[in-house]
Amino acid sequence: MAQTAARAYTMPDNVMLERAEVFSSCLNAELADFTVKFPWMDSAWASAFEAETKAADAFPSDLSLLLDIGVLSSDLRAAMERGYAALQALAGYATLAWPTDLSRQRAFGQDRWPEARPNTLLLAEMLELAHATAQSADFKPQLLDKGYRQEAIDQLDALVTELYERNKLLEAAKADRKVKRHDRVALFNMVWERMSTLSICASVVWAKDAERRAQYQRYRAKTKVMDGKNAPVAG
Description:
Strand order of the largest sheet: 1-2
Radius of gyration: 32 Å
Distance between the termini: 34 Å
Strand content: under 5%
Structural class: mainly alpha
Order of helices and strands: HHHHHHHHHEE
Largest sheet: 2 strands, antiparallel
């Protein structure tokens, strides 16, 4: 995907939208004055501007997307901890089942468990191996004889599925965030472009009316001291 375009404005998004709403409201009230000077600036143009502004306001913020990703990450970490705990429990029963046979004790992939603990896909692979081994006829009877339960064996398989699904959801959310960030900037820049056009047209329509012209200044007017007096400075 192409790199996200830079914002065309320097003010915060919410401030820009507030200005856009002011622009749209003023334009709707004074549309006829603009149409006289600029025939293409008609009701359709004004409606499109209003719709784009509302769409930008409704678009999910990057913070909300990050919070969603945070929740998904937390859910995945919790599932991984349950997966590792399930492996540890299996190791205990394996030690009881084969107290003098180290190779059978460690036939469930224990050597790679520490490496797998922080790695979702590797942990899922280790759970998959542990389930297949525990479920096999060569290991299952001895494990069950020591108190390990079929439900625990089944849970190993269920955790594999859960890890893959939660990881998929998380990665999809991260990818979606990149797309939405790009789309958000594009939409907000579109609104800003409308505002810029309207500001230029307002300077023609209200050339002799500074108060009305000020309604269409993209940046709020500031003041600075000149010769002991406050003079407005258009942003």
